[in-house]
Design brief:
7 strands; alpha+beta; 7-stranded mixed β-sheet; Aminopeptidase; about 30% strand
Length: about 160
């Protein structure tokens, strides 16, 4: 058996450890007033506001698109058949109080007396926005996802 001389071990030139990209801090933009937020009714698509009892709106702030909100009627436990709201804001629109106005205006524009929002527990901002719009916690014990409920305020005209 013959032994071959092993080739010299190759060494790699030293490299700097890559640095993470710098994080751009969002500048704190002023909160918007409800009068600056408009919901523009747009055509829904399947699962996003299309169908009986559904609605879809583009959220605009001073004429600039900020996101969208829609309501679907779904039939899921633990509630059964109910109106369910979903809201999505562009990243630049988050943290300005637009969500709370979007939740409130969509519920008011809908045909429903009661609207539910299903929110991940980790989504603290969305929960705060919904609660500011009048939603209250209606999560049954044992459910992981938050279920918040909005009920249309009664207008009692009798004197």
């Amino acid at each position: 058996m013959t032994h071959h001389a092993s080739a010299p071990k190759r060494t790699r030139p030293a490299r700097e450890t890559p640095k993470p990209r710098p994080v751009k801090l969002r500048t704190a933009e002023a909160k918007v007033s409800a009068s600056e937020v408009d919901l523009i009714s747009i055509a829904g698509t399947p699962g996003k506001g299309k169908g009986p009892g559904g609605g879809k709106w583009r959220i605009e702030v001073n004429g600039v698109r900020a996101g969208e909100v829609y309501i679907n009627v779904i039939d899921e436990p633990p509630i059964g058949r109910h109106a369910s709201l979903q809201i999505y804001l562009n990243i630049k629109s988050q943290g300005r109080g637009i969500g709370r106005v979007g939740y409130a205006k969509a519920c008011q524009l809908s045909v429903h007396e009661t609207v539910y929002a299903h929110i991940r527990r980790s989504n603290v901002a969305s929960r705060r926005a919904a609660e500011a719009a009048g939603f209250v916690d209606a999560t049954p014990s044992g459910f992981i996802q938050l279920i918040l409920r909005w009920v249309r305020p009664r207008t009692d005209l009798s004197i």
